[in-house]
Recover the amino acids of this structure.
């Protein structure tokens, strides 16, 4: 996968945001970081993105909720769900809501880039 | 109390019956006796009258003389009257002008006395004082019984008419049919005395006889009824006090013997029932003890499960948070690594950072596995297949090269409702543990059975995983399912495998137990209940 994509990262943890940014910018992608799911829809409407990286567990609106909203508007937008720990039920629910792929934490650059290459 | 007794009542009734019966009979007899005697007396009197009549006729017919009557007849009569029994002999004659006259009498001074036709002696024939008498009356109709006006003695009088026969027509007017009437009066004193004496005797004898009979009856009642009945009553009292071994004699062949027999039967039944009750209550005590022990064991297990859940819950909160920082660490290490070639010291250091960070993640995952709070999702699954799948995951590893696997599966095992992945995880854990402990080689025995009534399960699948390793000493056996407990060297295992397995089995409502003797290997047994089949599933 070559660089030059526009990617949105939504996670409440700073270290996760920074890790994603470092990894992705190193590959030549443009990255936008958000720390709240509530801000995501506006941003998505305002700008064009090639993919979204979304954490499941966030205070306030959860990743799952946001996923639902995104799918309503953009059925084909690739969404990568990041999560520390998922039960079978959560996975099933996420798939139902339209997650494109799954990225378990902790991950390093290889795993992140692998996940992205799967969806782009 | 004695008035209520059977014996008394019976005796009373018999006595009454005897009194009435015997008394009535005796009275009847005495009555007849008296009648007969009176009859005899009557006949006697009539006979005497006839004798007198005969004598008179004879005399009259022999020598009809005008004064014969006056001369001859009185002596005859007087003589006759001397007979003790004869009180009086008279000869009456009816007078044409009315009434009658005593022609002759053994009481000489009566002669010539007039009599009224209404008098006792006459009225039987001269009914109501009629001048014309009744004729052809029977003897007893001509008999009267009366009391002597002077001294009150009982007398019997018979009137015997003297008929005017043809031979008498010589002197007597043929138009007159009755020439005169004999009146023979006899004393009944002796008869009465006899009757009285007889009566007395009969009553005495009868009374004595009755008493004797009564006595015999009472005795018989006492002997044949009272005694055995008293014994029966005593026997029932004994039984009433629950001496149920007591039996009554059954030798009699009559109704009382039957009573004894049926009573004994009842006693035997009572005894049986009581014994059953006793043994039941004993076994009940046993059952209660059993259940109490079971309850205590179940409580212990619950406490352990709760502890585990609490630990797990705590761990989950912590563990979840670790993954984020680890992401940071791994990412940054990778990025740094780019700046150093792989064979440099720094590059290797960074590799170590990454490796250890991943290891942390593994530990965390193990912990989170253990703390899994999500519900298990059950599906029907086949025990034998799960076991084989778990085995197949590791069979080909080097670990298993020297291990002989022996399968003893029940072929028609029912399916059970379990979360297949998790149960597979449990079986895998057990199989791996077994293999690891038999490093040099050994035999791994796997068996499956359906069992009923074991470990408190109505129906369950029992899976055993047995090894021929060194076995587990007693002091370790109790802690083997504790979280973080491991006998392996540090770094080689988290000590969570069995704890997690225990938790999974427990969540399924099953049981996992271990048995081991040092030197004889260990056997892990998993019980999983076979619930009712899911709706729509054929069994």
């Amino acid at each position: 996968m070559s660089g030059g994509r526009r990617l949105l990262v939504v996670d409440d943890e700073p270290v996760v945001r920074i890790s994603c940014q470092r990894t992705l910018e190193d590959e030549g992608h443009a990255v936008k970081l958000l720390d709240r799911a509530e801000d995501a829809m506006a941003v998505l409407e305002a700008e064009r993105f090639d993919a979204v990286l979304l954490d499941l567990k966030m205070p306030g609106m959860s990743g799952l909720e946001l996923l639902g909203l995104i799918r309503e508007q953009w059925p084909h937008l690739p969404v990568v769900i990041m999560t520390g720990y998922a039960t079978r039920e959560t996975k099933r629910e996420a798939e139902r809501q339209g997650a494109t792929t799954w990225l378990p934490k902790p991950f390093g650059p290889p795993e992140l880039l692998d996940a992205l290459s799967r969806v782009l | 109390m004695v008035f209520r007794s059977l014996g008394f009542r019976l005796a009373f009734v018999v006595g009454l019956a005897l009194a009435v019966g015997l008394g009535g009979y005796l009275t009847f007899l005495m009555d007849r006796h008296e009648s007969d005697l009176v009859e005899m007396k009557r006949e006697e009197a009539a006979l005497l009258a006839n004798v007198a009549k005969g004598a008179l006729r004879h005399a009259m017919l022999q020598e009809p003389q005008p004064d014969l009557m006056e001369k001859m007849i009185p002596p005859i009569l007087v003589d006759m009257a001397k007979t003790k029994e004869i009180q009086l002999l008279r000869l009456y004659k009816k007078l044409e002008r009315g009434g009658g006259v005593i022609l002759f009498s053994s009481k000489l001074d009566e002669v010539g006395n007039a009599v009224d036709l209404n008098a006792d002696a006459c009225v039987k024939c001269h009914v109501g004082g009629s001048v014309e008498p009744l004729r052809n009356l029977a003897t007893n109709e001509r008999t009267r019984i009366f009391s002597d006006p002077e001294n009150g003695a009982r007398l019997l009088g018979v009137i015997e008419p003297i008929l005017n026969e043809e031979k008498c027509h010589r002197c007597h007017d043929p138009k007159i049919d009755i020439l005169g009437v004999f009146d023979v009066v006899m004393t009944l004193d002796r008869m009465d005395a006899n009757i009285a004496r007889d009566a007395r005797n009969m009553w005495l004898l009868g009374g004595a006889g009755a008493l004797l009979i009564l006595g015999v009856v009472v005795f018989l009642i006492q002997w044949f009824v009272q005694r055995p009945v008293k014994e029966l009553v005593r026997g029932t009292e004994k039984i009433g006090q629950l001496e149920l071994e007591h039996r009554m004699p059954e030798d009699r062949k009559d109704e009382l013997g039957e009573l004894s027999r049926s009573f004994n039967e009842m006693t035997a039944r009572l005894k049986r029932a009581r014994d059953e009750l006793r043994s039941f209550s004993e076994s009940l005590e046993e059952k209660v003890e059993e259940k109490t022990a079971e309850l205590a064991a179940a409580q212990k297990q619950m406490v352990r499960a709760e502890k585990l859940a609490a630990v797990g819950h705590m761990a989950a909160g912590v563990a979840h948070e670790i993954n984020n920082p680890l992401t940071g660490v791994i990412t940054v290490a990778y990025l740094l690594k780019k700046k150093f070639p792989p064979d440099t010291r720094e590059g290797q250091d960074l590799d170590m950072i990454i490796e250890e960070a991943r290891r942390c993640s593994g530990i965390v995952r193990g912990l989170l596995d253990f703390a899994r709070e999500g519900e298990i999702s059950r599906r029907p699954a086949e025990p034998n297949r799960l076991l084989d799948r778990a085995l197949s995951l590791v069979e080909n590893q080097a670990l298993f090269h020297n291990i002989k696997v022996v399968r003893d599966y029940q072929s028609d095992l029912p399916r059970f409702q379990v979360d297949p992945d998790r149960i597979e995880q449990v079986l895998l854990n057990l199989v791996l543990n077994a293999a690891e402990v038999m490093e040099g080689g050994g035999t791994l025995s796997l068996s499956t059975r359906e069992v009923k009534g074991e470990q408190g399960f109505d129906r369950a699948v029992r899976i055993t995983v047995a090894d021929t390793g060194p076995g587990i000493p007693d002091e370790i056996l109790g802690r083997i399912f504790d979280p973080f407990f491991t006998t392996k060297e540090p770094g080689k295992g988290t000590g969570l495998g069995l704890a997690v397995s225990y938790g999974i089995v427990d969540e399924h409502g099953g049981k996992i137990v271990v048995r081991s003797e040092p030197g004889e290997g260990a056997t892990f047994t998993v019980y999983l209940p076979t619930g009712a089949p899911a709706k729509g599933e054929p069994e």
